[in-house]
């Protein structure tokens, strides 16, 4: 999205005529949402748990959540899947998968709040990695722009 279009949307230029305040707020909210999506583009290095989060974040019931985790854990236990997990991932699911690399995977009871907690941990892990990636990319872009500006200034 060109920067001028974003500025127009953030300034409220997309509101015209006799529109009320609620429509302006909705427009501003949509502009901010679309700019955040463009800033936080999907990373290319998602591990298995992060990809699973992208699929499971919209489950509609507790039973679906249990069924998904049961399928993943049983498939890994049987060797049907060979998922890749980032080193240092902190979620319970990531730890279980990493344990399975060494031939032993701790038994987990998918009852109570455990499945919900597992899903939240995966989401938090992904969000943390997304932010780290964003700040690294931003600092590189800032460093590059600063060095280019400095070169132009000294020319």
How would you sum up this structure, described in words?
There is one protein chain. The chain has 155 residues and is mainly α. It contains six helices and no strands. It has helices at 3-11, 21-39, 48-56, 62-77, 92-100, 114-154. The chain is flat, with a radius of gyration of 22 Å. The model is unreliable at 1-7 and 13-18 (pLDDT under 50).
Sheet/helix structural class: mainly alpha
Distance between the termini: 31 Å
How much of the sequence lies in strands comes to under 5%
Stretches where pLDDT falls below 50 for ≥5 residues?
A: 1-7, 13-18
Q: Average pLDDT value?
A: 78
- What's the total helix number? 6
* Strand/helix succession: HHHHHH
Give the radius of gyration: 22 Å
Q: Top keywords for this entry?
A:
mainly alpha, 6 helices, 155 residues, single chain, disordered N terminus
Give the helix/strand layout:
Layout: H1 3-11, H2 21-39, H3 48-56, H4 62-77, H5 92-100, H6 114-154
Quick description:
The protein has helices spanning 3-11, 21-39, 48-56, 62-77, 92-100, 114-154.
